[in-house]
Structures are given as C-alpha cells and as structure tokens.
Amino acid sequence: xxxxTRLCSTKPIVTINGKFPGPTIYAREDDxxxxxxxxxxxxxxxxxxxxxxxxxxxxxxGPAYITQCPIQPGQSFVYNYTITGQxxxxxxxxxxxWLRSTVHGALVILPKRGIPYPFPKPDHEAIxxxxxxxxSDTEAVINEALNSGLAPNVSDAxxxxxxxxxxxxxxxxxxxTLPVExxxxxxxxxxxxxxxxxxxxKIAGHSLTVVEVDATYVKPFKTDTVLxxxxxxxxxxxxxxxxxxxxxxxxxxxxxTPVVTVDNLTATATLHYSGTLDASPTAFTIPPxxxxxxxANNFTGSLRSLNSKKYPANVPVTVDRSLLFTVGLGINPCxxxxxxxxxxVVAGINNVTFVMPSIALLQAHVFKIKGVFTTDFxxxxxxxxxxxxxxxxxxxxxxxxKVYRLPYNATVQVVxxxxxxxxxxxxxxxxxxxxxxxxxxxxxxxNPQTDPKNFNLVDPVERNxxxxxxxxxxxxxxxADNPGVWFMHCHLEVHTTWxxxxxxxxxxxxxxxxxxxxxxKDLPKC
Length: 526
Ligand code: C2O
Prior knowledge:
By secondary structure, the chain is mainly β. Helices cover 6% and strands 38% of the residues.
C-alpha cells in the first residue's frame, strides 16, 4: 500500500513495485514472459494480461475464480506465457474486486527483431494511460453500492498517466507533460485503464493518425478525437508540426445515456515543445460533449484491419455456432437491501446474472471438480422483445455460474444486442483468450435475415474489447482455437460486478498444440 495524493486528498492505494500507474512491461513478439507476483497487501490479488492470447496457457490469464484462485496475502505466483502472433500495445491489470483502479500498467509488445512497423517509424514513443480517480477507497465505493443496490459514486476525476492535471480548488502541479521537438513524430500508446468510463482523447491543434488498436494493425486514418473504452488500447502517431508552444491533451467522458449526476473532471496534460517557456499559455481544446454519439460513431466506423499480405485478416467466413447474447442492466427486487424491500440493479447476458464461483472454473474443469459450474449457458435470449426500446420493467434475471461449451476450432459468431431495460447504454465487451473480428454493427434490433448480408468479411477491425452500441448490436466472429475457460464480460467494472459476464469453455483438440498445458506447480489454491 502506498499513500498517494490526488485532488488535494491522500489515501493508501495498492500498487505494483510502488508505482502508480504500474511499471511498463516491454516484450517482443515470441518472447516468453515470466512474471512473479508477490502479494504484500491485505487483499487477495490476481493479474490479467489483457489481450494476450495465452495460447495453451490459460492458467496464466489471471481473472480470479475463472482461470486461477487468487494469490492470497503472503503468497506468490509466477505468470508464465509466450507472446504468439501479437505485437502492439496492451495493458495488464488486477482482475479481482475493484483493485484495477490503481493496479494497472502498459504491456508493450515490440515486433520481432528486424521487423519494422507497417507505417513510417516514429521518432519517439510515449505511453499515455487514461484512468479514473476516487478520493475515497474504491473497495468502499463498490461495497456501499452493493449494500444499497444502487449505482456506485462516479469517480472524482479522470487521470492521464496518473494525474488529473490542474483542477478547480486544487491547483496541483504535476500534470503529465510530453516534451516534443518541432518536426518530430511521436507514437502515443493510448490505454484506457478507467473502471467505468469510455473516454474521448484529443490534443489541441494536432491531428492523430490511428495505426493500431488492441495490438492489431489497422488501415491508418486521421482523426481529431479518439474514442477508447476501458480495456482498449489505441496507437496513434502525432506529428509535432508547430514551431513551438504548449498544447492541451484532454481525456473526457463519452456516455450516450441520460445521466443523472456527473461530476468527474476532464483530465488534462500538456504537449510541450522544446524551447517554450513554462509560463507561456497552453492552447486549449474543448472536449466533445458527453453525448457526442456522432463523434464516437465516426471514430468507430473508421476502424478497419490493415489486412495486408503480411498481416492478413483471417475472418471466419462460415460459422459453426451462431449465438445471440443480450447484454444489459435491469432491476430485480431486493428484500435485503437498505432500505429494506427495495430493488437492486442487476446485469446479465441472456438474462443470466453470472455468479462468481468459489473455485476457479479452469481448475474445476481440468480437475473434474463437480458442482462448480454448469454448461447450460443459453445461446439465445429466453424471450424476445424490442430490446432497444423499453422492455419489461423487471429484467427477471436468474443467477447462475454457467459456461457455453465450444468444440476446439469451431468458428463462432456472437451478436451482442444491447437492451434498454433501464436505459440503453454502450457496453465495452471484452473476450479473454481471443481476438475477434467485428463484422457488423447496427442500431435497433439485430435482424438475422437481413443484417448479415451487410457484414464485412474482408477487413473488419480485429480486437479484444468492443463497444456494443447503445440501443444497438454488434456482431463478432472468432475461431475457438484456444482450449481453456475464457471470460467474457463488460469492461465497465460496475457492470461486471452486477453480473454482466459469462465464460466460454473450449475443449482440447487432438494434436499436441491443441491442448491446454498442464497447470503450473505454484498455481494458487482457493
Ligand atoms: Cu481487462 Cu476480464 O479484463
């Protein structure tokens, strides 16, 4: 634990090696990573390497109670995995409780030695981690919300590389500054490590060329504004094409829902040209409005896989399993809430509110421990309604620890359909263990007859986390070529807490490269 001051108020936070944000891990494609995590705090801990494929090494994926039991206080665990077929920016973060609010950092995967980027090599690189800060302890924030059945307090500020920048009533110094030289180009590795906010990112007077998302190359395009959801990463190239000066970088909320109270601040940082006096004024940028859906859609709609000879987009053209998952929030009665007989916000996929088991699913699967989970996760919603309109008042979810079982190498299509029971909301859904292609996207209800005719099976964006549009749907495809148990959930942490999560169980194949490796000897016990 480390006492840390932000917004003129101090609290102890959990850190890795005393750093907030945590240390950057640099690796190269094909590297074997051995990372020993020693738990010196009072909380159970586990670390997830968000977006790493973990081929055959599901034991090292990290979500607590899914692939491993947590590392208990005083214990340690070595995460051992190889980076295969991936290069770019990813992130690592705690995957238990709300500890990822302070336990997160960058994972930079450089291309193999001698292999260039598929775009002109930038002169310099920098890591830009966006996150959120609460003045109070985040475990207390979520516990209070769970006791009341209501939504948790929103964060007090956003941060860029750990700092909100100067804020009213707390003229803190120490905002992040990126020094630049006129005429040079900079690769910014943007990471959204926030718990509950999708963010816009802008730099005053500079356009951003997007070259990669979620460690997959994209067809480069220019934009003023990047939209980035929790768990997503985006590499942009910025040309320092001014003679000098100071320019504001801003990270602000995108949430196209009717929102009641919001007081979290836009985070700011500075692009500072060499030779510019500290005292000179900073060119200002106005962040997009919170409900700037058009800006968000323009950005999302511009993303395409690079799909070059070297980096082909291997989109599954046929599908073995076609699934429809509704994702959304609802209200269930809550006799035990305070005040009593109130109601509780719940979330689910196909009306199943996922209940965390007390033994990791992967252990239960491999060691054949009965009674931990069932394999009856529904491939379709229990009943149909106008998902994007106002649905039944009560989501009527049932609790369960259910997985959806897939044969090795099956090609899978999942249409993720947002439901508007409380309010339509954009859900950044993350799939562990795979990259998927986002082949289609639309508003309203997905139409299985007509919508697939417009799918992009040539160069759809490939990623590990994607926003299901508010009041709409997104279709993703992946090949189940990674045996193990793989979590899928909304990366808005509060929605995960409420149950917007499930897991796929992928069976072993026949060949030696098609099976999960045996568990590591130091695998934590529950
Ligand atoms: Cu980045 Cu399951 O999470």
